Amino acid sequence: MILRLAATMDMPLRQQNALMIAAGYAPAWRERNFTAPDFAAVDRALDYMLARHEPYPAFVVDRRWNLLRANRGAVKLTEFLTGPTPVDTAAEPVNLAIALVSPDGLRPFIVNWEEVVLYFLRGVQADAQADGSPETAELLNRLLSFPGVPALSDVPPPDEAQNPVLPIHFRHGETSLRLFTTIATLGTPRDVTLQEVRIEFFFPMDDSASQIMGGWNNALTARE
């Protein structure tokens, strides 16, 4: 009955487990690491998607935007904006939410940062309300605590030449990149870890961005 009610309310698997535990039962859904042998098919599928999306950036993240893997296009985009990433095995895992919102991250390189971050924060707020976990609520509070972050109640002014999707306008020096994103999830997950995985694909908004990223790919191919 607990699982029927949870399914009717379309509750995430993590919260279904929490209900089971609260009722005195064992969790119904497993939560495993990506190194689990039966994740091999999913692991190959993720690598396939990332590789086929080149030269455009793609990231795989967990529920709280911790980076799990990225393709070469994602690495090139990061290096274009912030320079080569130093190798530091002691550093904390990369979190794309923190990188987007922090003044020390990507904020200085996003022309329309306030509009983008407001849209993003509302997505994190929806996640926190949906899963009810303290970790997601803590992430939202951390993001809102950064200086200059707009209030969730803010409404950006309407754009007369409004695009059909919200672009992220990156700029470094004289070079601009206008990209938009799509987010994919696994369609029939039966594991908590897999249900919370997201694949974010970046696409060029115009021919200029497409040509720039195509040039990055040509340069990598030439070196190989």
CATH topology of the largest domain: Beta-Lactamase
CATH architecture of the largest domain: 2-Layer Sandwich
Q: Find the count of extended strands (DSSP E, 2+ residues).
A: 5
Uncertain segments = none
Strands ordered across the widest β-sheet: 2-1-5-4-3
The radius of gyration computed from the alpha-carbon positions, rounded to a whole number of angstroms, is 19 Å
Mean pLDDT: 88
Determine the fraction of residues in helical runs and give it as a percent range.
40-55%
Category by helix and strand content? alpha+beta
Give the domain tally: 2
CATH class value of the largest domain: Alpha Beta
One letter per element, helices H and strands E, the order comes to HHHEEHHHHEEHEH
Shape: globular
Largest sheet, strands/sense/barrel: 5 strands, antiparallel
Total DSSP helices: 9
What is the straight-line distance between the termini?
58 Å
- What share of residues are in beta strands? 5-15%
